[in-house]
Design brief:
The protein is of the alpha/beta class and 243 residues long. It is 34% helix and 13% strand. The protein has 8 helices and 7 strands; from the N terminus they run αααβαββαβαβαββα. Strand 4, helix 6 and strand 5 form a beta-alpha-beta unit.
Length: 243
């Protein structure tokens, strides 16, 4: 789905065309993952689990959170998740490099500050490119208008781990739900933070997804061998993400 690791491999000749996978099952799985992360936070599930562990009946102690959810990167996967959250009744905002037609308010280009001023949950679904490397850093966290919950399902190199830890300690982030890490497998300090939930890079990596990815890869290779145009070719030697 992401081709950054391929483009970074100098052993692959630059004239070989590269395609990415766009699959409905991937969007289904990723959207369910993001909705799970949002709902667990919104309904204070971790607080109730903690109370259960202490044998405490916390029936009226934790209220549902009033969320304003920002989806940073409303391409194939991000748009599907944003639409699902909107249809569940959440207040949703989107941000993209280019203008998009959306059922929720969306921002693009130089409107990033306006987007960040609206939200208290940030869902990151951008690809890894030279522009997005280290995107989730102190610079962005300092521009958030409200204490914000971070959900990153993109790539580990999109966030800066030490800046996330610092932002949580300073209260700029209320916590984080992370599926990707700078170095994987991950066993660093975020694992020990109470308000961080970590999963091992499985947001849309189901058995069914992998089978469909194999099928789509084979079909794309056959199109190439037959001289047909590729359906999802990456347009440049440098990864330009077509949202």
């Amino acid at each position: 789905a992401g081709v950054d690791h391929i483009l970074d491999d100098d052993s692959i000749p630059k004239d070989i065309p590269i395609s990415r996978i766009v699959d409905p099952q991937m969007a289904f799985s990723m959207t369910n993952y993001i909705v799970m992360a949002v709902l667990n936070y919104q309904r204070c599930l971790y607080d109730f689990q903690d109370a259960q562990g202490k044998g405490h009946w916390a029936q009226f102690e934790f209220d549902e959170k009033d969320l304003k959810i920002g989806v940073y990167g409303i391409g194939h996967l991000g748009m599907d998740a944003a639409n699902a959250l909107y249809r569940l009744g959440f207040e949703v905002f989107g941000y993209s490099n280019s203008s998009k037609e959306t059922i929720f308010p969306s921002f693009y280009g130089n409107q990033l500050s306006e987007f960040l001023n609206k939200i208290n949950v940030l869902v990151c679904t951008v690809p890894l490119t030279p522009k997005t490397k280290g995107l989730l850093s102190a610079k962005l966290f300092n521009d958030l208008a409200f204490p914000t919950y971070l959900i990153n399902v993109s790539r580990g190199a999109v966030h800066v781990e030490n800046d996330i830890i610092k932002a949580i300690k300073e209260g700029k982030l209320t916590g984080a739900f992370l599926d990707v890490f700078e170095k994987e497998p991950y066993s660093g300090p975020l694992s020990l933070m109470e308000n961080c939930i970590l999963t091992p890079h499985l947001g849309s990596c189901t058995l069914e997804c992998r089978a469909r990815m194999e099928s789509e890869s084979l079909n794309e290779a056959l199109r190439f061998l037959q001289g047909d145009s590729l359906l999802q070719e990456v347009p440049d030697a440098e990864y330009v993400y077509q949202e």
